[in-house]
UniProtKB/TrEMBL annotation:
Organism: Salinicoccus halodurans
Pfam families listed in its UniProt record: Bac_luciferase
Organism lineage: Bacteria, Bacillati, Bacillota, Bacilli, Bacillales
Similarity annotation: To bacterial alkanal monooxygenase alpha and beta chains.
Domain of life: Bacteria
CDD domains: Flavin_utilizing_monoxygenases
This protein's name: Luciferase
Sequence ranges assigned to domain Luciferase-like in this UniProt record: 1-294
């Protein structure tokens, strides 16, 4: 079973944004050493607790400081951009880091409405045009546009992925012959039926191509279940409190999280989020992932882990790699 990582560059309350971005780069190095297949970074806008607003810049930094691991976006928020520019950007990354670059594509705003308006005059109109934008991007990346070339053309073209949590995104991936990533960590809908639909409807873009599915999951692993639960608490408090004041704009330390007063509504939100996460010791995490693999037949798992301490995050990924026998220090 292949394992990969998605990192959102969260900013802990003892970090600067630069610290968070450097932590992401070091995590990519760790992922490479531990045998993970790929390392993707997210795109978010106007969110004080997340530092990754321009993934293509961060990917240049990560690519220059790693050697083998695949690197990519999770995701390029395509309605904000011209497909030709996206193709140029990722073709350049593919030229610098041959055979290692993925273009994950999504259509979410990635931030509040005010920021969407600052980024684009016509975001909603572009969302409606998403099918055409996606087809244009595929054509440019594949070098099949007869009018223009999105140079530099890399020796190995980047791989395009469609990201989403709905039948619409699965259908778009199948229609365009793209690999598909289902964001289970941000959806209450179980992905089994959606990825099944994708596989049945898949239309190969080139000879021999087969459908390929990544399931993205929120996981926190520690030596004991109790410690994993403690690490998760900071993240859960942050999610329900981040709009309630400066104290929680960034990911709080455990002491801060534990001292927070939690309302009944907030506790309910935390319980709901927790039910969509995998939290436990290595054996528990391994067992749960294997069960999901049996249910979905996913080709790969992409793991999102958010902890206050970068060391706890790296340790979580280390324990998971060891439990699956992919660790390759």
């Amino acid at each position: 079973m292949k394992l990969s990582i998605l990192d959102q560059s969260p900013i802990s309350d003892d970090q600067t944004p630069k610290d968070a971005l450097e932590s992401t780069m070091r995590l990519a190095q760790t992922a490479e050493a531990f045998g993970y297949t790929r390392f993707w970074v997210a795109e978010h806008h106007g969110l004080p607790g997340l530092a990754s607003s321009v993934p293509e810049v961060l990917l240049s930094y990560i690519g220059a400081n790693t050697n083998r691991i695949r690197i990519g976006s999770g995701a390029v928020l395509l309605p904000y951009y011209k497909p030709f520019k996206v193709a140029e950007t990722y073709n350049m990354l593919g030229t610098l880091f041959p055979g290692r670059v993925d273009i994950g594509v999504g259509r979410a705003p990635g931030g509040p409405a005010e920021v969407s308006a600052a980024l684009s005059d016509n975001f909603l109109q572009s969302v409606f045009k998403m099918p055409d934008l996606l087809k244009d991007l595929v054509r440019y990346v594949d070098g099949k546009d007869t009018r223009v070339e999105a140079g530099p053309m890399p020796p190995v073209r980047p791989e395009i992925w469609m990201l989403g949590t709905s039948e619409k995104s699965a259908g778009a991936a199948a229609e365009n012959g793209l690999a598909y990533t289902f964001g289970q960590f941000m959806s209450d809908v179980k992905g089994k039926d959606i990825v099944g639909q994708y596989r049945r409807a898949f239309k190969p873009r080139y000879e021999g191509q087969k459908p390929y599915v990544i399931m993205t999951l929120s996981v926190i692993c520690a030596e004991t279940t109790e410690k994993a639960e403690q690490l998760a608490y900071s993240y859960l408090i942050w999610q329900v409190k981040k709009d309630s004041g400066d104290k929680f704009k960034q990911l709080p330390a455990l002491e801060t999280a534990e001292s927070a007063t939690v309302s009944l509504d907030e506790q309910k939100q935390m319980d709901e989020m927790k039910s969509n996460m995998i939290i436990g010791n290595p054996d528990e995490v391994n067992s749960t992932l294997k069960k999901i693999h049996e249910e979905t037949e996913a080709d790969e798992f992409m793991i999102v882990t958010i902890t206050h301490s970068p060391e706890d995050k790296q340790n979580s990924y280390h324990l998971i790699a060891e439990s699956f026998g992919i660790n390759n220090p």
